[in-house]
Specification:
single chain, 286 residues, alpha+beta, OB fold (Dihydrolipoamide Acetyltransferase, E2P), 4 domains, five-stranded antiparallel β-sheet, elongated
């Protein structure tokens, strides 16, 4: 029995109106014309990838995928099907499913088209191809020891694990990076490319990373956010130093302490003033 999901050298045995038949060890597979690369003749030995289509037919393709069962590579997400999973491009005509069972519990953390996943191939119970994201054990063999990296250096990588504690990424240099949930403005998707700054180089050669700006840059961003909201509300908003933290977080997506710092900066620059628990944009600053 020829192993499906792998590459075999097979003999071209017959030609029909739409395909060739290829054989090896008594097994026959269909090679559609659309899956042929170059010229093919009956009697020729060719390398093909074998898989079952959705109807269970054994197909061969000369469009060899980026990986086979047991090997791994990066693939691009092409489509997202809620409650089912995502389809990825492995380098052949048909896209392959990454099951929802192998994706984060919450669909907001699922990859979107053009995100990339590091996967291998597997078979479902019916023998059809599935793409399976690499485990942390597989990534452990890829990680290098971070050298010549300093605090606040910028690094870029892809999210390979997403959970409540935080995000694990593999950087472009194959370093392991961890981003604690407190160092996130928003939760990245699995497979999303992110850029952050190094906040710790650990003794084991891994990195702790933040996606938050430096404190002074963050304060500028928060002040700009408050100012933009004020202008949107015609220079008057029912928020001030004594507003409830939950209302602040819901409206501005920042903590109360960050909100108060932003107000303080704007008042110091005489852009706003507070009266009766409300905040007003000074007319000469509109």
């Amino acid at each position: 029995m020829l192993e499906v999901g792998t590459i075999h050298t097979m003999n071209v045995s017959n030609k029909t109106q739409t395909s060739y038949q290829v054989k090896k060890s008594g097994i026959t597979a269909t090679l559609p014309f659309d899956f042929i690369i170059g010229e093919v003749e009956v009697g020729q030995l060719i390398d093909v990838f074998l898989y079952h289509d959705r109807q269970g037919n054994l197909l061969a393709t000369m469009q060899l995928p980026k990986m086979i069962i047991g090997s791994y590579d990066w693939v691009k997400v092409k489509d997202v099907i809620p409650n089912l999973g995502v389809f990825v491009d492995i380098g052949m005509a048909e896209e392959v499913l990454v099951s929802s069972d192998d994706l984060p519990l919450f669909q907001t953390a699922w990859p979107l088209p053009d995100d990339q996943l590091y996967v291998t191939l597997s078979l479902d119970k019916k023998g059809r191809l599935l793409a399976v994201p690499a485990s942390q054990k597989v990534f452990n063999d890829l990680y290098g020891f971070a050298t010549e990296i300093e605090l606040n250096d910028e690094v870029t990588g892809r999210a390979i694990r997403v959970d409540r504690e935080g995000i694990v990424i593999i950087t472009d240099e194959n370093f392991r990076g961890f981003i604690h949930h407190t160092e996130l403005e928003k939760e990245p998707r699995l497979g999303e490319k992110v850029t952050g700054r190094v906040i710790e180089v650990k003794e084991d050669g891994t990195l702790n990373i933040s996606l938050m700006p430096l404190k002074h840059e963050r304060m500028d961003d928060d002040a700009e956010k408050v100012l933009a909201y004020l202008k949107l509300k015609d220079g008057n908003m029912p928020f001030g130093d004594r507003s409830e933290p939950e209302a602040i977080r819901k409206t501005f997506q920042m903590s109360k302490s960050a909100f108060k710092r932003a107000l303080g900066r704007l008042m110091k620059e005489r852009i706003i003033e507070q009266r009766d628990g409300q905040t007003f944009l000074l007319k000469n600053k509109e």
